[in-house]
Specification:
Length: 243
């Protein structure tokens, strides 16, 4: 879309960004400004990149705040992170980041695909245009957006409130650890990042089992994303069937 050169940065076994490789890539491109994507929960392994460490690396490599832009991709876990324990990492505009995005159809559960992007006002104004027939300014790339999606989000957030959202997050995290322990007891190699409700395990050999449970697989691994509607009975049924 932007016709800009992209540089891939390696990842650790956990799915988190490889900070040593990031440092190397930045040093190799010191003559250019940097646009970085920091993940708040990767798709497959649910890994959360350490924003503070990324900022420290940028500073150490000689990138001043006016020479980098950081986007924080929080599709699923971005809506969960604020409700974790007090010592969980904080993603905030008090830090020199440019934008954050979260999905509305994942943790919040909107019935249509939708998302929210939060950015600094000066960036919004830079790409906004006045639309005469709407009698307003538009800041979307496509020039259009779903009017129902904000209503779905407002309804869920208002109905559940802060405490309801926190209870959902705590249930997801607790049940993710329960599933991890169940799988380990069943002799299945399993991984769960500390800040994640995505349980990763070795890919089942039986394709009918994969299809029945609609497992998302990549290579030799599969994962289960434990959401608020999943209870212990369903986890037990899944593990028993996998054995």
């Amino acid at each position: 879309m932007y016709r800009m050169p992209a540089v891939k940065v390696g990842t650790l076994a956990t799915g988190e960004i490889d900070y040593d490789d990031l440092r190397q890539r930045l040093l190799e491109n010191k003559d250019k400004p940097a646009i970085l994507n920091v993940n708040i929960g990767t798709t497959v392994k649910g890994a959360v990149d350490d924003l503070d460490k990324v900022l420290d690396i940028l500073k150490a490599c000689g990138f001043s705040e006016d020479r980098f832009f950081i986007h924080c991709d929080g599709a699923l876990f971005g809506m969960m992170m604020p409700f974790l324990r007090a010592d969980a990492p904080m993603v905030s505009f008090r830090k020199p980041i440019g934008s954050i995005s979260v999905s509305g159809h994942k943790f919040v559960g909107a019935p249509v695909p939708c998302g929210v992007v939060i950015t600094r006002f000066r960036y919004v104004m830079a790409l906004s245009t006045d639309v005469e027939y709407l009698n307003s300014r538009d800041a979307t790339i496509m020039g259009s957006r779903n009017g129902h999606a904000p209503i779905y989000l407002w309804y869920t957030l208002t109905r559940k409130g802060y405490e309801g959202m926190r209870a959902d997050v705590e249930r997801c995290m607790r049940n993710a650890h329960v599933l991890k322990d169940m799988l380990l007891c069943a002799g299945i190699k399993t991984m769960l990042n500390e800040l994640s409700n995505t349980v990763v395990f070795e890919r089942p050999r039986e394709e009918p089992f994969v299809r029945k449970w609609q497992l998302a697989c990549e290579g030799d691994i599969a994962h289960v994303v434990v959401m608020p509607n999943i209870d212990i009975a369903k986890l037990e049924e899944f593990v028993q069937a996998s054995g």
